[in-house]
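By convention, the token line describes the chain's fold. To illustrate:
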Amino acid sequence: MFHAFVIICAATAASEIYTDTCFRANDTWGPYKTEENCGIRAKQMVLEVTEGSLTGTTFFTLGFPEQIYAEGFCEKLNQDPSV
């Protein structure tokens, strides 16, 4: 099983990323059985925070930067319930 998340950061118009502003946004739809499906969801999440309905919220959260940088990731979940 895989879990999708995005890292979101403030950036300048010249694409300089302010790493001290970055935060992680976790997916609430998953987990996903395949890494491919997780990757599709991670891409959807990136579009949502950079171009979709969450853009305004993201700009507000980051203090209204010139741009937003976001990158999606998938992490493999530990399937051993004893851990």
The mean pLDDT is 89. The radius of gyration is 14 Å.
